[in-house]
Amino acid sequence: MDREYSSLNAHPLKAGSNFVRPTQELPEKVALGDPALSVMTDLKCVSVVTVRAKTPMEKAHAKMVRYGVRTLLVLDETDKVLGFLTTTDILGEKPMRFLQHHGGTHADILVRDIMTPQRELEVLHLADIKSAKVGHVLATLKAAGRQHALVVEDNANGTQAVRGIFSSSQIARQLGVNVHIAEVARTFAEIEAALADSHVLI
Description:
Number of helices: 8
Number of domains: 1
Strand content: 15-25%
Shape: globular
Oligomer: single chain
Structural class: alpha/beta
Distance between the termini: 64 Å
Protein backbone atom coordinates (compact mmCIF):
# COMPACT_ATOMS: atom_id res chain seq x y z
CA MET A 1 0.00 0.00 0.00
CA ASP A 2 2.87 2.38 0.78
CA ARG A 3 4.05 1.99 -2.81
CA GLU A 4 0.60 2.86 -4.25
CA TYR A 5 -0.35 5.91 -2.20
CA SER A 6 1.63 8.84 -0.85
CA SER A 7 0.52 10.79 2.20
CA LEU A 8 -1.20 14.16 1.79
CA ASN A 9 0.29 17.39 3.06
CA ALA A 10 -1.12 18.43 6.46
CA HIS A 11 -1.36 22.08 7.48
CA PRO A 12 -2.16 23.89 10.74
CA LEU A 13 -5.75 25.12 11.13
CA LYS A 14 -5.88 28.90 10.91
CA ALA A 15 -7.14 30.82 13.92
CA GLY A 16 -10.72 32.04 13.58
CA SER A 17 -11.77 29.27 11.19
CA ASN A 18 -15.49 28.52 10.98
CA PHE A 19 -17.21 25.55 9.39
CA VAL A 20 -19.48 24.89 6.43
CA ARG A 21 -23.16 24.54 7.13
CA PRO A 22 -25.70 22.95 4.79
CA THR A 23 -27.55 25.53 2.74
CA GLN A 24 -30.51 25.58 0.41
CA GLU A 25 -30.87 28.27 -2.22
CA LEU A 26 -34.59 28.90 -2.65
CA PRO A 27 -35.64 31.09 -5.59
CA GLU A 28 -35.86 34.75 -4.64
CA LYS A 29 -39.10 35.18 -6.58
CA VAL A 30 -41.86 32.67 -7.24
CA ALA A 31 -45.40 32.68 -8.62
CA LEU A 32 -48.43 30.70 -7.47
CA GLY A 33 -48.03 28.37 -10.44
CA ASP A 34 -44.42 27.46 -9.62
CA PRO A 35 -43.57 24.04 -8.15
CA ALA A 36 -44.31 23.68 -4.43
CA LEU A 37 -40.77 22.38 -3.87
CA SER A 38 -39.48 25.85 -4.76
CA VAL A 39 -40.83 27.17 -1.43
CA MET A 40 -40.18 24.15 0.79
CA THR A 41 -37.32 24.16 3.28
CA ASP A 42 -35.74 20.78 2.51
CA LEU A 43 -34.21 19.15 5.59
CA LYS A 44 -31.88 17.18 3.36
CA CYS A 45 -30.29 20.50 2.46
CA VAL A 46 -30.79 22.56 5.62
CA SER A 47 -30.24 21.45 9.20
CA VAL A 48 -33.42 21.80 11.22
CA VAL A 49 -33.12 23.50 14.61
CA THR A 50 -34.44 21.27 17.39
CA VAL A 51 -35.31 21.49 21.06
CA ARG A 52 -36.20 19.04 23.82
CA ALA A 53 -39.71 18.99 25.28
CA LYS A 54 -38.45 19.72 28.82
CA THR A 55 -36.58 22.86 27.75
CA PRO A 56 -37.85 26.10 29.36
CA MET A 57 -39.93 28.16 26.95
CA GLU A 58 -37.74 31.23 27.37
CA LYS A 59 -34.62 29.22 26.53
CA ALA A 60 -36.34 27.86 23.41
CA HIS A 61 -37.26 31.39 22.34
CA ALA A 62 -33.67 32.52 22.84
CA LYS A 63 -32.58 29.64 20.59
CA MET A 64 -34.98 30.79 17.87
CA VAL A 65 -33.53 34.29 18.05
CA ARG A 66 -29.96 32.98 18.01
CA TYR A 67 -30.51 30.84 14.92
CA GLY A 68 -32.85 33.28 13.18
CA VAL A 69 -35.73 30.79 12.90
CA ARG A 70 -39.42 30.91 13.80
CA THR A 71 -39.93 27.18 14.32
CA LEU A 72 -38.33 24.38 16.32
CA LEU A 73 -38.84 20.65 15.92
CA VAL A 74 -39.40 19.15 19.38
CA LEU A 75 -37.60 15.85 19.97
CA ASP A 76 -37.52 13.25 22.71
CA GLU A 77 -34.32 11.75 24.11
CA THR A 78 -34.09 9.30 21.20
CA ASP A 79 -34.59 12.06 18.59
CA LYS A 80 -38.16 11.02 17.75
CA VAL A 81 -40.51 13.90 16.92
CA LEU A 82 -42.71 14.87 19.87
CA GLY A 83 -44.12 18.09 18.50
CA PHE A 84 -43.62 21.42 16.77
CA LEU A 85 -43.01 24.83 18.35
CA THR A 86 -43.45 28.21 16.66
CA THR A 87 -42.91 31.81 17.70
CA THR A 88 -46.69 32.19 17.66
CA ASP A 89 -46.90 29.49 20.34
CA ILE A 90 -44.48 31.48 22.50
CA LEU A 91 -45.67 35.02 21.82
CA GLY A 92 -49.38 34.26 21.46
CA GLU A 93 -52.04 33.29 23.99
CA LYS A 94 -50.78 29.81 24.90
CA PRO A 95 -48.42 30.89 27.71
CA MET A 96 -51.09 33.04 29.36
CA ARG A 97 -53.66 30.25 29.15
CA PHE A 98 -51.16 27.85 30.70
CA LEU A 99 -50.43 30.21 33.59
CA GLN A 100 -54.15 30.78 34.19
CA HIS A 101 -54.67 27.04 34.58
CA HIS A 102 -51.47 26.07 36.38
CA GLY A 103 -50.13 29.25 37.97
CA GLY A 104 -46.47 30.15 38.17
CA THR A 105 -44.46 32.49 35.96
CA HIS A 106 -43.18 32.49 32.39
CA ALA A 107 -39.95 30.95 33.67
CA ASP A 108 -41.93 27.85 34.71
CA ILE A 109 -43.35 27.15 31.24
CA LEU A 110 -41.70 24.32 29.33
CA VAL A 111 -41.75 23.66 25.60
CA ARG A 112 -44.08 20.67 26.09
CA ASP A 113 -46.65 22.96 27.75
CA ILE A 114 -47.23 25.11 24.65
CA MET A 115 -46.01 23.09 21.64
CA THR A 116 -48.33 21.42 19.16
CA PRO A 117 -47.93 17.74 20.13
CA GLN A 118 -47.32 14.99 17.58
CA ARG A 119 -50.85 13.61 17.96
CA GLU A 120 -52.28 16.95 16.77
CA LEU A 121 -49.89 17.49 13.87
CA GLU A 122 -51.22 17.07 10.36
CA VAL A 123 -48.58 16.56 7.70
CA LEU A 124 -48.29 16.62 3.94
CA HIS A 125 -46.72 13.79 1.96
CA LEU A 126 -43.68 14.50 -0.16
CA ALA A 127 -45.16 12.44 -2.99
CA ASP A 128 -48.07 14.91 -3.19
CA ILE A 129 -45.81 17.94 -2.90
CA LYS A 130 -43.72 16.87 -5.89
CA SER A 131 -46.68 17.45 -8.21
CA ALA A 132 -48.18 20.44 -6.34
CA LYS A 133 -47.84 24.17 -6.97
CA VAL A 134 -47.14 27.09 -4.63
CA GLY A 135 -50.82 28.04 -4.80
CA HIS A 136 -51.82 24.59 -3.53
CA VAL A 137 -49.57 25.01 -0.50
CA LEU A 138 -50.96 28.45 0.34
CA ALA A 139 -54.53 27.19 -0.05
CA THR A 140 -53.72 24.28 2.28
CA LEU A 141 -52.18 26.53 4.94
CA LYS A 142 -55.10 28.93 4.72
CA ALA A 143 -57.71 26.15 5.00
CA ALA A 144 -55.93 24.76 8.07
CA GLY A 145 -55.51 28.20 9.65
CA ARG A 146 -51.80 27.55 10.09
CA GLN A 147 -48.64 29.38 9.14
CA HIS A 148 -46.50 26.25 8.91
CA ALA A 149 -46.83 22.74 7.54
CA LEU A 150 -44.57 19.73 7.89
CA VAL A 151 -43.79 17.48 4.93
CA VAL A 152 -42.99 13.81 5.53
CA GLU A 153 -41.58 11.00 3.44
CA ASP A 154 -42.17 7.31 4.08
CA ASN A 155 -39.30 5.09 5.10
CA ALA A 156 -38.91 1.51 3.84
CA ASN A 157 -39.80 0.15 7.29
CA GLY A 158 -43.18 1.90 7.32
CA THR A 159 -42.17 4.81 9.55
CA GLN A 160 -42.19 8.46 8.55
CA ALA A 161 -39.45 11.08 8.56
CA VAL A 162 -40.01 14.84 8.52
CA ARG A 163 -38.44 15.95 5.25
CA GLY A 164 -39.49 19.57 4.86
CA ILE A 165 -41.25 22.62 6.25
CA PHE A 166 -43.51 25.18 4.60
CA SER A 167 -43.81 28.66 6.10
CA SER A 168 -46.39 31.20 4.97
CA SER A 169 -44.02 34.07 5.78
CA GLN A 170 -41.26 32.46 3.70
CA ILE A 171 -43.68 31.93 0.81
CA ALA A 172 -44.88 35.53 1.13
CA ARG A 173 -41.31 36.80 0.84
CA GLN A 174 -40.74 34.72 -2.28
CA LEU A 175 -44.01 36.00 -3.74
CA GLY A 176 -42.82 39.56 -3.05
CA VAL A 177 -45.38 40.26 -0.32
CA ASN A 178 -44.32 42.11 2.82
CA VAL A 179 -45.76 40.41 5.90
CA HIS A 180 -44.73 41.98 9.18
CA ILE A 181 -47.22 40.44 11.60
CA ALA A 182 -47.78 36.96 12.96
CA GLU A 183 -51.57 36.61 12.93
CA VAL A 184 -52.58 33.91 10.49
CA ALA A 185 -55.73 35.59 9.15
CA ARG A 186 -54.01 38.92 8.50
CA THR A 187 -51.02 37.20 6.93
CA PHE A 188 -53.21 35.56 4.31
CA ALA A 189 -55.23 38.75 3.89
CA GLU A 190 -52.03 40.62 3.05
CA ILE A 191 -50.92 37.93 0.61
CA GLU A 192 -54.30 37.95 -1.11
CA ALA A 193 -54.33 41.75 -1.29
CA ALA A 194 -50.87 41.84 -2.83
CA LEU A 195 -51.85 39.22 -5.40
CA ALA A 196 -55.23 40.79 -6.19
CA ASP A 197 -53.89 42.49 -9.31
CA SER A 198 -53.19 39.10 -10.82
CA HIS A 199 -56.81 38.05 -10.11
CA VAL A 200 -55.58 34.81 -8.58
CA LEU A 201 -57.35 33.66 -5.43
CA ILE A 202 -55.85 31.34 -2.86
